[in-house]
Amino acid sequence: MTTTWLDLKRPLDQRLDRLMRDLDDLFRSRSIDYLLTGGMAREILLHYGHGCVTGRATKDVDFG
User: Fold this and answer.
1) Nearest alpha carbon to residue 62 among 23, 29, 28
2) Nearest to 16 by CA among 45, 39, 42, 44
3) What is the 3-state secondary structure (H, E, C) of 7-59?
4) What is the pLDDT of residues 11-31, one digit of tens each?
5) pLDDT at 2
6) Cα 61 from Cα 26, distance rounded (Å)
7) What phi and psi values does residue 29 have, to the nearest 5 degrees?
C-alpha cells in the first residue's frame, strides 16, 4: 500500500492533524493498511487540499 499525504493549501485543525498522525502511527506499527473515507476525506481533499469552500463540515472520521 502507498501512503499519500496531500500538500495542503490550508492547515488542518490541530486536533484533526494530531488524530490523523496518531492513527497513522498506530496503524503502521501494526502493519494495518487503511483508507480515509467519507465526509472527512472529502473535506480534507476539497477544503484543505484545494482551498474550496465545501459548504458543510463533518466531525467524524471514517476509515476502511
Assistant:
1) 23
2) 44
3) CCCCCCCHHHHHHHHHHHHHHHHCCCCCCEEHHHHHHHHHHHHHCCCCCCCCC
4) 888 998 899 899 999 999 999
5) 66
6) 15
7) -65, -20
